Amino acid sequence: MTADSSQPPGLQAIAERITYQQPDSWAGVPTHYCPGCTHGVAHRLVAEVLDELGVAGRTIGVAPVGCAVFAYRYFNVDFAEAAHGRAPAMATGIKRVLPDRVVFTYQGDGDLAAIGAAEILHVAARGENITTIFINNATYGMTGGQMAPTSLPGQKTTSSPFGRDIEMTGMPIQMSELIAGLPGAVYVARRSLHNVKEINKAKKAIRQAFEIQLQGLGFAMVELLSNCPTNWEMTPTQSLEWIETMMIPAFPLGDFKVPNGAKQS
Question: In the predicted model, is pLDDT for residue 264 greater than 70?
Answer without folding.
Answer: no
